[in-house]
Amino acid sequence: MKIETISWTGQSVERVEDAALLTGRGRFVDDLGTRPGTLQAAILRSPHAHADILGIDITAAAAMPGVVAVITGRDLAKLTAPMVAGLKVAVENWPMAVERARYVGEPVAIVVAQDRYLAEDAVDAVEVEYSALPCVVDTLATLEPDAPLLHERAGANLVSDRHFRYGDPEAAFAKAEHQVSVSIAYPRNTGAPMETFGVVAEYDPHEDAYDILANFQGPFSIHAVLARCLKVPGNRLRLRMPPDSGGSFGVKQGVAPYAVLIGIAARIAGRPVKWIEDRLEHLGAAVAATNRVTTLKAAVTAEGRITALDWDQVEDCGAYPRAPEPATLYRMHGNMTGAYDIRNLAIRNRVVLTNKAPTGLVRGFGGPQVYYALERLMQRIAVELGLDPLKVIRANLIPFGAFPYRTASGALYDSGDYVQAFDLALAEGRLAELEARRDAARAAGRRYGIGFAAAVEPSVSNMGYITTVLTAAERKKAGPKNGAQATATVSLDPVGSVSVHVASVPQGQGHRTVLAQVVADVFGLSHHDVRIVADLDTGKDAWSIASGNYSSRFAAAVAGTAHLAATRLRDKLGLIAASQLGADPGQIGFAGGAVFAKGQPDKTIPFGRVAALSHWSPALLPAGIDQAIRETAFWTPPELSAPSEDDQVNSSLCHGFIFDMAGVEVEPGSGKVRIDRYVTMHDCGRILHPGMVDGQIRGGFAQALGATFYEELAYAADGAFLTGTFADYLLPTATETPDIDILHIETPSPFTPLGAKGVGEGNCMSTPVCLANAVADALGVAQLDLPLTPARVAALVAAPEPSLPASHRTAAKTAVTAKPGDRALRGEGQAKVAAGPDAVWAMLLDVDTLASIIPGCHGVKKLSDTHFKADVTLGVGPVKGRYKAEIKLSNLVAPQAATLTGSVSGALGTGGGSGRVMLSPGEGGGTLIAYTYEAAVGGKVAAIGGRLLDGAAKAIIGQFFAALARKASPSRPGFFARLLRRYA
User: Fold this and answer.
1) Which helix (H) or strand (E) holds 67?
2) DSSP string, 584-652
3) Quick one: average pLDDT of 191-203?
4) Is 581 helix (H, G, I), strand (E, B) or coil?
């Protein structure tokens, strides 16, 4: 018999996931069935960035049809404890605002009803009385002594300040021939996965236990945080993950607080509760990457050799330091010198809080922020010293003979040949051709630039790196935390079929395909013969606190652990087969679906027969074999130790290498950047599936395009969230994403079972700065902050505007009072009314008249002659809701002029402003009304209706004056009244 040997690992076999996903048969959290009687939840969120909650009136909402429960922060606080923060700081981190809201979008109340639409309607009926407080959204402004304080018990918005020193950076700077520095303000962005958060929760009062289904990606260290928050032991909290997740990019670890909220909702309602997040909720209040302000200095020789780095990083974690933050700041701590051999290093890390949504782990977490500063610095060194940027990079790369290489701050780079990868990228990426294209473009007067970036891509995080935020004494007191653990179970059923389960739920990476390849090779089977189970249940499956799908750990850790489990089971089968065949165990082989004795073709039995023996005939098992049915492997690498006494830490196990180069052309008039060519070289160790590796690289590149040119989660100075739709938070599409050249070398990792390293996050780290360097080269500018929108790039191209004459400066300064970034409305206009000024003046002060002419008014209450309250329904584009309005009149000059100052508040947001109304006699005894106004809005209206606000304001004002005109001339409307009515 001929035994066929095929190695599936390393081939680009067809993905087994795709058929179901492309035909709509994926099993996502919203696709899975729920128990009869499951209720639906909707969340009321704060329209204020900072406000005390004086009271919440749920009476009307609770009385609405189908409403089962309305839950406030105080209800939550009775049944839970604050979530544990990643820092030792006096901050109560509740999943929902209890007495104070600290960011726009923070949950304030939950409504549970029979249907989602009933819950949404009831949310609008919840009345919250706020007392607005000053807020701070700027990363550096929050450090000022007079900045509004988010948490009084913490005493400051600065919640962590640590200094690190490795080698002798002071001496290196003192001897340096040159010092070069860059200052970077890295913006907030997010992953924006196709599928938003989803939770289905149930509470068992008899067991005091929670069963929660959520599209949570891990890490499962958060399981302990959730159990503590819910006040139950870990074995009373069962977390289940669906088989499919519609993308995550790290973002779905942020579903954890909602698991608590919906769990408590189920407990109070007494029935299962389901909640699916909408897109506005996700953009405004899910998880954002940290925005960071960095000052990076280098001590440099005349030849461009860096002898020391000095990092000053200020990390903005939003309103709460929510676990696992400040992981984004410390994940890269071991490799702050990047791909370069730099032995002297100083780091200052500060963590601050602002009135923005809490941050979390977004793809590449920490890497984009670090490499944007480091690789911009490399370009600036070349420019300021008049050197070739490629020579500066090459002069500083870690040499091949240094691996495994220990960095100054403690990372152990497992393998690599950075110089060879660099040289291959320049040769195979056709650098000479790219330079010729640049020279030709510049000769023709066009703006063309070339950019480069080198990056080390960490993967398989060391749990202990986060504890570097603590001092050595604090770490000793808390106990050691270190390592990374992966789990896999391989099972054989009674007919000899192979199944694999891992504690890592995929979000599109292709787990099922790669695991089938790896395990099939161990048993000598076709990859079609191996079935992968990808969902996870902490109540019955093998897992650890390090489990989850994060930090590019699948190929290196999870697939490797599956290989270990399969190998152990195969070795047992080999002993069984040797006993059955009468052969030496060392001669047993597995291939072609058979088990055989090598060199003895007559001694062969089908794999299924051997694999099923433990089920059918356990008494025939040879001595020393208890079972060959299931094998579970737990793997942890010894290289990931806890931080040392001097704060050195190997923050990740594996370290890939990336070298990118890009040629871009900038159109001066529009500011549009065209990518002419992009080349990316990768060393990710052993490649398990070339097609999917390239897919991960292309996906990371596309996401990095968004970070480079389009994406920013923007806030106004008053904390209003401004980018609540994909019309404001732009994402690159296939049209904007060019093809790229992908190159590879392989230096297998000696630390992982399969020699693989991570590859899923690299271009999120390298591409933004590579493209920025190319734009800087094209324009000859030193300072570039992301995103490089056309308007921002055009401003860099344009000549500086001449300054205003001194006589005009005061007027220009006082003409605009709104703060930069506000969703401000300004306008003026006039209308003609048939009645005279006295009659119109009387109407404006009459309650009944106002009630009849204010658009959407449900009634006006007169508090004094110049103070009114009204209940109104207003709509702005897709947003429509009920508001409480308050109007005051001042500066009255009867019957000629008055100033109106007003504010509105409701579940959809807040607004306020003032206007001046002036009455003058018109033709035929009528009145000419002239008006000017200025207003600003926040909350949901600002987030998703911003582009429509000006038009909506004009329409509402037009409706008001059209109604006034009709009221003033009820018998025979005049021409202007009819005209206003037509356009109202």
Assistant:
1) strand 67-72
2) -GGGEEEETTEEEETTEEEEEEEHHHHHHHHHH-GGGSPTT---SSEEEEEE--TT-PPP-TT-----E
3) 96
4) helix
Residue 48's CB is within 10 A of a number of other CB atoms, namely 30
> Which residue type, as a one-letter code, is found at position 647?
D
Q: Which amino acid is at 291?
A: N
The pLDDT value recorded for residue 847 is 77
* Contact status, residue 436 vs residue 423, Cβ threshold 8 Å: no
Nearest partner of 251 among 486, 508, 484, 510, judged by Cα: 508
How many Å apart are CA 677 and CA 740, to the nearest integer?
A: 7
- The CA distance from 420 to 422, in Å, is 5
DSSP 282: H
pTM of the model: 0.90
CA angle in degrees (0–180, nearest 5) for 262-264-268: 115
Q: How many residues does the chain have?
A: 984
Alpha carbons 94 and 80: distance in angstroms, whole number = 9
Cα–Cα distance, 704 to 688 (Å, whole number): 24
Structure tokens given for 79: 């049944």
Other Cβ atoms within 10 Å of 163 Cβ, number: 11
pLDDT at 947: 61
| Structure token digits, residue 618 | 């356990």
Residue 507 has, within 13 A of its CA and on its CB side, a CA count of 28
**What's the average model confidence in pLDDT over 615-632?**
94
Write the secondary structure of 3-55 as one string of H (helix), E (strand) and C (coil).
CCCCCCCCCCCCCCCHHHHHCCCCCCCCCCCCCCCCEEEEEEECCCCCEEEEE
Looking at residue 809, its pLDDT comes to: 38
Do 346 and 169 contact (CB within 8 A), yes or no?
A: yes
All residues at 6 or more sequence positions from 478 whose CB lies less than 8 Å from its CB, including other chains: 467, 470
Compute and round to an integer the Cα radius of gyration of the chain.
32
